[in-house]
Model the fold of this input.
Amino acid sequence: MPIHEPQMYSVSIEELRKLFNHSLQTGMLMVDEDDRLLHASDQVLKVSGYSADEITNITFPQLFKARASLRELYEFHFKHENDVGEWPHGFLKAKNGSLMYYQFSMLRVNNGNTCIYLLSLKNKEEGQSLNLLQRFSDAFLKDINLGVLLINLDYQLADISDRACQMLALEREHILNKSLDDIFATVPSQHQLVQRSLLNGAIVRNHAVSWTNNQERFDLLLDSSVLKDSQGNIVGAYVIFKDVTNMRSLEQMVQRSDRLAMIGQIAAGTAHEIRNPLTSIKGFLQVFRRAFGERDMCKEQNFTDVMLEEIDRINALVNEFLLLSKPRHVAYEPILVSEVLRGMVPIIHNEAILYNVQLHYEASCHVPEVIADNELLKQVFLNVCKNGIEAMPDGGVLTISERVDTIERNVCVDIHDTGSGIPMFVIDKIFDPFFTTKDTGTGLGLSVCQRIIHDMGGTIRVGSKGFGTTFTISIPYT
Done:
């Protein structure tokens, strides 16, 4: 693009040759002493994203972030021909908010009582090296499994990684170049991922944050710091966060497993001592019950019935304690989960009828075999289904569905009820030993189920959004 009426400026042919020798590869700018942009070459228009008309409607500081005014830079670097020194540098701010690092040379051309600055831009690094760096930066933001936010000096979002968009439930094209105050306007300031103090030099390392995007809850580990130029001036900031939800879940599972192991060891050592006196008590009560019946002592006979029921309950509790320790006689073998469920459906259906609950079973074709214990797997399915049925005292629908997760290589069984759901403040505790929401529950059923599935190398998870609860049992296949 030609310079507008170059003959009106008092500039020599030698000066123009010097200027254009520097501007062949990158581009040039023409700026007046009031910082108005008079002209930009095609190369500058291309990298900045502005049209020729648009760029003349902004000022030089809006387009280019330099550490001093053009007059000061010219006086320091270019006024004395024999003392040029290092070229000045700064960041060209594109229309989309991204920043590009450039060095530039300058000529000052007098025109009557005013002067014009002619700037020739070039990349600070060698072309190939910078190109590789830019490509790496683009690939990093697109492919890396991290949340990355780049923030400019105006506290606007200059760029964002794809993973960050997924975790924060944001659409990239709607938030680029927007103020972070606007982007996170619905989030209380104390809970926002980014604080304005970041641009003042505040550094964050390994900061744990919980974030809910209305669909999923994430545990994040966050780092943030400022970006500086070679002169030490802050030119922006970055925020990087990693999803550590699975790691936190694994940590909680290990803690639960330790507690279960401790309880199991105690139970195994005391169960024998508990069962011996219970057997004697139960035997004598049965004798009393028979004698009361022969003498038509109905009131006393009812008392013994109640005591015998309580003894049976104690025995059941002791059995659950024993299951917390690692099962001794486990027969792991290749089995089909579909066959196990088909065998369980009639039993579960009979239980559902008692609560006016409808049972829906959704089988899946070509489900691969898993390595598991058939009887223990039945115990897990029956326990979880029974919990779901009991969560619907006024009736509802219990849905059992099979699916295959080919990415994680798991056979998954989803058991969903239409009950009132599990409150958020409770859901993290339901696998803890002795925690129960039932009046007559022991709080050990789900702990036992979790132990069984973990021993098979699988996982059992729960989700509840206030309109029902879904337990997902995942078992790896080979």
